[in-house]
Design goal:
heterodimer; A: 346 residues; alpha+beta; 6-stranded mixed β-sheet; 5-stranded antiparallel β-sheet; 19 strands; 24% helix; elongated; B: 304 residues; mainly alpha; MetI-like fold; 0% strand
Chain lengths: 346, 304
């Protein structure tokens, strides 16, 4: 097991253009499950590929287990990677797929069978060893890819959106399986995804990236409850955080904290008139979208998320409120988090 | 497709057998006239005593086959055909593989290099071979000239590229390779680019070096397309007579004679149509075998 560290890691694909990854500094913890989260084009996969050794950094250093590995080939870095497409070798059986890293790293042949069977049983694919990848389902392929990664006991696991090729139902079970798997092997894991739910559910910590820049690193709770800037605030959470400009700050509050005024009892609160324009019924909850009415924020579009219990009429104005401690403040130009301040809304 | 198909059905439903025949007609006619008729004629001649300039024709049974099987020229030609084809294919596959690896990577002027490599294939065989005839000529050869200039050979003891049996064979093989490499390179390049790039990357991460990735991952994955290249190349070399005819005309002393060139020399130049036809029939079993293999490969790739 090892710690992965990057120092001012930068990747510029075309000279003169904006870098795909810019000055990324990060340090994983021993045995941690770290998630790179960002929209497509945020540089998260490029960052992962640089750690894997598939992409050469333009500047900066990569350390694995305290050793600079910039000039080492992927095989010398002792990492394992699971690709988005799984990249199974289509002409080889599952057994030979899993045994390939052992062969390539000159593990004595007599140990192959034992190790392959160990990896296969860990992932419950012992019965599939003689099949070809094309005869497997998506979930089974993913497990084969994981088995191929685990078989030589790597120091670091890199996973590049391994769930994105699975259908929604399978994705949920595969996610749980991955979590269990990580708990069992305890290898430092870096996981790339654009799916915030995956990131929140699986990550020990989440690193949020946009345009190749790290916006925030923290536990799922930290990035959700205390977003460092408006990007993180709106990227995490569905529906995203409501943002309203007021004087020199941007005020944000989560849709689930925007509730009927009479239900907000604890402490001080900010009240708004909320005209409901659309009601989405999602089974366990309502998503109300509409506009604020009156006051400084008149006409601002906001979204509320409420549990069932009351019905709402489209076009009607209701009294809504946000508890004051749930308001987040961001600088109007910097868009970075600033301390709370008293504001007038009328 | 579906819409077009439905339309044709509605127009041609009543006279569909006629329409079908009309569609197939040209292809059938083409095959019958250009391939079928000459083939039947060749079989017919092979069992006769047909001569150029003679109007009489008699059935002679297997006499032609008996006599050509005893002829040393024929055995030499059969052997040469096999040797030329196999050695040219081996050289072509190795070179085309190297080239396709080199051309896959992006570099400045890649388009130009690809174009230049394709040229030997685009140029007519006869023109290219005439060029090689000059390059390998006994007096005007640029190769000899360069080698003498570099003091590798003395002017009076320079090799006669087309005049010595071994060198002449090597020259014929070389020209075949020169002609086939572009074709195979393009096919292999297509096969190589069809491999998703994550797969060699995964192999690199799994710890495989260049050779292991090449022989255990890339080449096996390219096997279907590789066999297409080999089978096509085999047909081109095995049935070709232009290169041999222009370069050496089968000489010196039949040392570079192949089945097609011997058939031409015997049947047309030597006026013995019957023997020429019989010789050329020996190409059939080999070509049938190749056609069968090709269809099998095509079927396998279709199924997968």
């Amino acid at each position: 097991m090892a710690v992965v560290e990057t120092r001012d890691l930068t990747k510029v694909f075309k000279e003169g253009q904006l870098g795909a990854v810019n000055n990324v500094n990060l340090e994983t913890r021993e045995g941690e499950f770290l998630v790179f989260l960002g929209p497509s084009g945020s540089g998260k996969t490029t960052l992962l590929r640089m750690i894997a050794g598939l992409e050469t950094p333009t500047a900066g250093e990569i350390l694995i287990g305290g050793r600079v590995v910039n000039n080492l080939t992927p095989r010398e870095r002792r990492i394992a990677m699971v690709f988005q497409s799984y990249a199974l070798y289509p002409h080889l059986t599952v057994y030979k797929n899993i045994a390939f890293p052992l062969k390539a790293q000159s593990v004595p042949k007599k140990l192959h069978k034992e190790k392959v069977e160990w990896a296969a049983s860990l992932l419950g694919i012992g019965a599939l060893l003689q099949r070809k990848p094309r005869e497997l389902s998506g979930g089974e392929r993913q497990r084969v890819a994981l088995a191929r990664a685990i078989v030589r006991e790597p120091s670091v696991f890199l996973l590049d959106e391994p769930l994105s090729n699975l259908d929604a139902k399978l994705r949920l079970s595969a996610r749980e399986e991955l979590e269990r798997f990580h708990r069992r092997v305890g290898t430092t894991t870096i996981y790339v995804t654009h799916d915030q739910v995956e990131a929140m559910a699986m990550g020990d910590r989440i690193m949020v990236l946009n345009h190749g820049v790290v916006r925030q690193i923290g536990t799922p709770k930290e990035v959700y409850d205390d977003p460092a800037d408006t990007f993180v605030a709106t990227f995490l959470g569905s529906p995203p955080m409501n943002l309203i400009e007021n004087q020199d700050v941007i005020v944000g509050f989560r849709p689930e904290h925007f509730r009927l005024a009479q239900e907000v009892k604890d402490g001080s609160k900010v009240t708004f008139k909320f005209r409901v324009d659309n009601v989405e019924y999602l089974g366990a909850e309502f998503i109300l979208s509409g506009c604020l009415a009156g006051g400084k924020a008149d006409g601002k579009k906001v979204i509320a998320r409420l549990l069932l219990g009351q019905s709402f009429e489209v076009g009607t104005i209701y009294d809504f409120a946000v508890p004051e401690h749930h308001l987040k403040f961001f600088g109007r130009t910097s868009e970075k988090r600033v301390g709370p301040r008293p504001l007038t809304w009328q | 497709m579906a819409v077009a198909g439905a339309k044709i059905k509605s127009i041609g439903a009543a006279q569909s057998p006629l329409l079908g025949f009309a569609m197939f007609g040209p292809a059938i006619l083409y095959i019958l006239l250009v391939i079928g008729a000459p083939f039947v004629l060749a079989v017919f001649y092979a069992f006769s005593d047909a001569r150029i300039g003679s109007t009489s024709l008699h059935y002679v049974g297997l006499e032609n086959f008996r006599s050509i099987l005893q002829s040393p020229s024929f055995r030499k030609a059969l052997w040469n055909s096999v040797v030329f084809t196999i050695s040219a294919q081996i050289i072509v596959m190795v070179c085309a593989n190297i080239l396709s690896i080199a051309l896959e990577k992006k570099f400045r002027g890649r388009g130009l290099v690809r174009f230049l490599i394709l040229l030997p294939w685009v140029a007519p065989v006869s023109l290219g071979t005439i060029g090689w005839k000059w390059i390998l000529d006994s007096i005007y050869s640029v190769i000899t000239w360069v080698l003498i200039w570099a003091h590798v050979f003395k002017p009076y003891s320079a090799p006669m590229w087309l005049g010595e049996p071994k060198l002449a064979m090597a020259s014929v093989i070389l020209v075949h390779c020169w002609r086939l490499i572009p074709f195979s390179t393009v096919i292999l390049l297509a096969g190589r680019t069809a491999i998703p790039k994550e797969i060699p990357e995964a192999a690199a991460i799994d710890g495989a070096g260049f050779w292991r990735t090449l022989f255990q991952i890339n080449l096996p994955m390219m096997l279907p397309i590789l066999s297409v290249a080999v089978l096509f190349g085999t047909i081109f070399t095995f049935t070709d007579m232009t290169v041999v005819y222009i370069l050496t005309a089968g000489g010196p002393y039949d040392s570079t004679q192949t089945l097609p060139s011997l058939a031409f020399a015997t049947g047309i130049q030597g006026s013995d149509l019957a023997a020429g036809a019989a010789i050329s029939l020996f190409l059939v079993p080999v070509l049938v075998a190749i056609a069968y293999l090709m269809l099998r490969v095509a079927h396998r790739t279709e199924v997968n």
